[in-house]
Amino acid sequence: MAGEVVLPDFWPNPFGIRVRIPLRQKGIDYESKEENLNKKSPLLLKMNESYSLANPVLIHKGKYICESLIIVQYFDEVWRDKSPLLPSDPYERAHS
What we know:
By secondary structure, the chain is an alpha+beta fold. The chain has one domain: Glutaredoxin (3-Layer(aba) Sandwich), CATH 3.40.30.10. Helices cover 38% and strands 18% of the residues. It has a 4-stranded mixed beta sheet. Helix 1 (14-26) links the parallel strand 1 and strand 2. Helix 1 runs parallel beside helix 3. It is globular, with a radius of gyration of 13 Å.
């Protein structure tokens, strides 16, 4: 499944860490692409709508998702068969 999930990221970025930890917790195979946030690659500029921010972008089957918390929620929706990352109750999820 590597190549199906791609994470362009800058390793010390805390928002990228927020995405990498759940990827490992869920056991999702992914390809990491190291980025220089001072000189973003054409791929990252194309995918990331907030050029000035250091938001991670997840590419899954050619489609992209921005913002670390939205990506974590996406993991729970797509990989339901693996242990959940967030509570199922909407109120509890909002406060997690």
